[in-house]
Amino acid sequence: MDQMDFSAIRHRVKLLEDTGRSRLFENRDAVACPVCGQPFDQALVSRNDTEQLAPDAGLSLCLHRGTDRMVVFTHADDS
Ligand SMILES: [Zn+2]
């Protein structure tokens, strides 16, 4: 998948935080992660060049780099 369209799933996730250049969404509808196909917990959409993440132990991450933004999907290991 080289051109993921986040807007296709945007209406199914809830915006938690918006800093202007990055936005954090919560998945309350078991939307499938476009990277691995499993439902994700949160998605971070970022246009920043760098991003600091502080994952909990037992958390796994899927990354997708688009043309102008990075999307990070988080999964709890027991999901
Ligand atoms: Zn995933």
The major beta sheet can be summarized as: 5 strands, antiparallel
CATH topology group? Phosphorylase Kinase, domain 1
Ligand catalogue: zinc ion
Strand content: 35-45%
As a percent range, the share of helical residues equals under 10%
Order of neighbouring strands in the sheet with most strands: 1-2-3-5-4
The domain tally reads 1
Uncertain segments of ≥5 residues (pLDDT<50)? none
Count of alpha and pi helical runs: 1
**What would CATH call the architecture?**
2-Layer Sandwich
Label the overall shape: globular
Gyration radius, in Å: 12 Å
Could you say which structural class the secondary elements and strand pairing correspond to? Answer: mainly beta
Order of helices and strands: HEEEEE
Main CATH class: Alpha Beta
The count of β-strands is: 5
Distance between the termini: 23 Å
Mean pLDDT: 88
In short:
With 79 residues, the protein is mostly beta strands. It contains one helix and five strands; from the N terminus they run αβββββ.
What would you note in describing this structure?
The protein is mainly β and 79 residues long. It has one domain (7-76): Phosphorylase Kinase, domain 1. It is 5% helix and 39% strand. It contains 1 helix and 5 strands. It has one helix spanning 7-10, and strands spanning 13-18, 22-27, 42-46, 59-65, 70-76. The chain has a 5-stranded antiparallel sheet with strand order 1-2-3-5-4, with no helix packed on it. The protein is globular and about 30 Å long. The two termini are 23 Å apart. The model has no long low-confidence stretch (mean pLDDT 88). The site of zinc ion has 8 residues, from strand 5.
